[in-house]
Amino acid sequence: MTQTASGPGYNRGLILGVVIAGAIVAFFNQTLLNVALPHLMQDFQISTSTVQWVVTIYMLVNGVLIPTTAFLMEKFTTRQLFLTAMCLFSVGTLLCGTAPNFLSMLGGRMVQAAGAGIIMPLMTNVIFNMYPKEKRGSAMGFVGVAMVFAPAIGPTLSGWVVEHYPWRVLFFIILPIALAVLIAAYFLLKNVTETENPRFDAWGVVLSTIGFGGILYGFSSAGGYGWRSLHVIVPILVGIISLLFFVRRQLTIDHAMLEFRIFRTPTYTIAVLISLLLNMTLFSGLILLPVFVQNILGLSPVQSGLLLLPGSILMGIMSPINGRLFDKYGAKWLAIIGLSITIVTTFGLTKLSLGTTFWYLATIYTMRSFGLSMLMMPVMTAGLNSLPLRLNPHGTAMSNTLNAIGGAIGTALFVSIMTIRSETYITQIVSERHINPADQAQMGHATLQGMTMGTNDAFLVATCFAVAALILAFFLNDAPGPQRERVRARGKVAQQT
């Protein structure tokens, strides 16, 4: 094992700034198209269940690629990985902006996601190598600005852009920013991680790709084919079987591509499960609200973006503050308080109607954002802190993999629930009111009402996920910063004696 750099040889703040800048671009791009989805549906003549693939494919490629990042972070230096990731992201952004059709755009999104999939776990690993445990909360708090604020602000910007310009402009806004980060990284970024010469596990890559890809494809197809369709059942079963073989292989080979023994650490396991449920809950709002506001309430893309703006700003402000609170008190009570707020506010989104006001949605979403800001970084940092530093690449890769897959499955699940339940409610309303299908006015009103009821059902499922996360939070056993310092000091004294 060779260390690529030493602490005194680099400026931690400068490196942190460069890496976070890259993460902001990647996270920002994750939700940039949410408000633009109705425009993509019109331009490409596609359905809701099809258009959501521009979001789902991004998270799918992330989820498939991230398991390999533990190997990549051990094999290559910080500079090599980050520069490669930003190059891939920039090329993918250009492909999306010039895509002549929907399939071409999906290809560009996959290339974008390949770059972003490297950036996210690399950023976390860099921070855990540069900062001691008692200071990681504050450092990760600034990362939270990228992880939480950037995806949330995306719909606000895209809402303004798509109302005044073609949706392609979105990508040509991102491209120069990505290139600027790439140039800055070339001159400023230093190597801060250690490298080895691990063996590449080709079978592990194949099995994990089929496993994660099959499960996601099955969930994503449910909206179009129904849950009993072979298009849904077969991919999910194949995915589960492949993942079982993948896990078994990783537990038996000498140098695992992704180390599953980290789940023997209870705090890490609970933190990962909470993060998984949180990501599914988070994306329910980011996906469903823009569609509801524009397609059902008839508000403009700009209004849809402004709806999310106060919550986005609050999340950005609170993330560094919550990082300091984590260093002082630990993650458990932050998680319990944050999840309680998230449950109440997500349940408030199950009461939507055709008369729901803009201000009701803005207030609920802002309060919900406040609750979520107390959760994302503290919970993840608590889990990674419980692992020894040598296992951090695997812990980072595992948590990011599950978060990406959770977000993708959550997106597909909520869209399919909304679609299937909406169709059921529309049929029920037409039958009960004896509406003539030729009567466009009454059919239009019945359709909007049915879609609203379907959206309520989707948010009810999201509320259940948040409740499950709250139950897990009571078992989260992480030590606050001062206690970690005392344990560390006792360990040093014991070694000296």
Give a verbal description of the structure.
The chain contains 19 helices and two strands. It has 497 residues and is mainly alpha-helical. The chain has two domains: 2-198 and 255-489, Up-down Bundle (Growth Hormone, Chain: A); 199-254. Strands 1-2 form a two-stranded antiparallel sheet.
Range of strand content? under 5%
CATH superfamily heading of the largest domain: MFS general substrate transporter like domains
Q: Please write the string of helix (H) and strand (E) elements.
A: EHHHHHHHHHEHHHHHHHHHH
Rg over CA atoms? 23 Å
Give the structural class: mainly alpha
**Total count of helical runs of at least 4 residues:** 19
Total domain count = 2
Instruction: Give helix % range.
Output: over 70%
Task: Summarize the main sheet.
Answer: 2 strands, antiparallel
How many DSSP-defined strands? 2
CATH architecture descriptor of the largest domain = Up-down Bundle
Query: Ranges with pLDDT <50 over ≥5 residues?
Result: 1-8, 490-497
Spatial arrangement of strands, main beta sheet: 1-2
- CATH fold node name of the largest domain: Growth Hormone, Chain: A
The end-to-end span amounts to 29 Å
Q: Based on CA inertia axes, which overall geometry fits?
A: globular
User: Could you tell me the mean pLDDT?
Assistant: 82
Just give the CATH class of the largest domain: Mainly Alpha
